[in-house]
Amino acid sequence: MAIQHFPLKLVSRRMLAPTVGHYVFVRGDDQPLDFVPGQFIQVHFHYADGTATKRSYSLATIHDHALAPGEGVEIAVSYVAGGAATALFEGLREGDTVDASGPFGRFCLMPADSNRRYLLIGTGTGVTPYRAMLPQLESQIRQRGVKVALLFGARTPEELLYGDEFRAFANRHPEHFRFVPCLSRELPAAGSEHAHADVRHGYVQQFLEEFAPDAAHDIAYLCGNPNMVDACFESLKGYGLPVPQIRREKYVSSK
User: Fold this and answer.
1) DSSP 3-state assignment of 140?
2) How many domains does the chain have?
3) Do 81 and 133 sit in the same domain of this protein?
4) In this predicted model, what pLDDT tens digit does every residue of 156-201 receive, in sequence order?
5) Residue range 111-116: average pLDDT?
6) What CATH number corresponds to the domain at position 27?
7) Do 21 and 15 touch, CB atoms closer than 8 A?
């Protein structure tokens, strides 16, 4: 079956971190985009020599329904020095279009889930799908009292993508949602907006023991740096979580 392509027209962009941009598009063909939070789209383009290539981007749009024509299609783009995709996105102006396909993937919350807790673990732009999942998580908190812990690995406070949104969500649901930034290089200054009791110094995989993963009531999601995903996957198996309860998606930087 042929993959259906569609144009995405740039509406706006802003910097989330020194090397990460947040892009908002709309479909240029005025069609809806039905996606499940956690899925990704692919952007197709050509290298300078004419060779076709593509990059995958998780949808960051916060929604609980199909995107109607004209609603924003949001992604986070990491800039890689000398990268062809970086040149493409940095060169876009409002109104410019890119060729896209999708959505694809099964890195999603499943309707049949009956777990008592989600462990969401991500690094860098690997937290993008978790942003899109917030409406679904809110519904599950309300309907069945599920608890959620989001461990977000970054180097510095400035690289906590969507951190203000995750903190606000945690403040709205203090008994059910924990936002745990794990900063490997630099902790936030005392009194800064990033400073709170759940900030950790180190890598996300160092703090799994604190959350006592339990096969009886946990489902874990791993997204981001492949080394982190592999390390957490092995650790979670060591705690007894069966493989179907550990859902993974690796992000590999491509030029």
Assistant:
1) helix
2) 2
3) no
4) 999 999 999 999 999 999 999 999 999 998 766 665 666 666 888 9
5) 94
6) 2.40.30.10
7) yes
